[in-house]
């Protein structure tokens, strides 16, 4: 179905501080743990500081564990999976932590959508114009096909806490009631509303770079 969006992303971002000019921080989330998330990469490491540096230099790395000279790097999906941790000798598990700023609005450097109705290109959803009237030339608009989607790309992988969506208000508010939010192709929230909305925050809590909204209304 048609997807009409005036979208603003509000997210938490990361900061790291120990390798060159990179600024990211890590914290221990499990000390002397007997399990650890499945590793996406295993590298030699002198100590936990060296492992943190290796993780900071890899955009998809969310955290690491260090054991017997090896850095085991893992991504957000491995960490957040309730049944995806593996048995391990005693080790400490570290993850990136959010900056001291309570919230940061992340900027999208590019966007795309499944189709375009008229001149209503994807960039209108993130141009800063929050006019919710379709005829104000402020909304992105797809054609009327099943599973239409809109996607924005962040400048760097980040932790997306939630997505704020400004819905069209001159008409057709019920067109956006059942949809999926995904980060890097993985669903973080499936929304099924009984009444239309004007402006709303939709939780996500996922780590990645591509943020997609897919209309599931049939």
Automatic annotation (TrEMBL):
Pfam families assigned: F5_F8_type_C_2
InterPro entries cross-referenced by the UniProt entry: BG_Antigen-Binding_Lectin, Galactose-bd-like_sf
Protein name from the UniProt record: F5/8 type C domain-containing protein
Residues in the signal sequence: 1-19
SUPFAM superfamilies with a match to the protein in the record: Galactose-binding domain-like
PANTHER family per record: F5_8 TYPE C DOMAIN-CONTAINING PROTEIN (PTHR45713:SF6), FTP DOMAIN-CONTAINING PROTEIN (PTHR45713)
Organism name: Macrostomum lignano
Domain of life: Eukaryota
Keyword Translocase: no
Keyword entries, A-Z: Signal
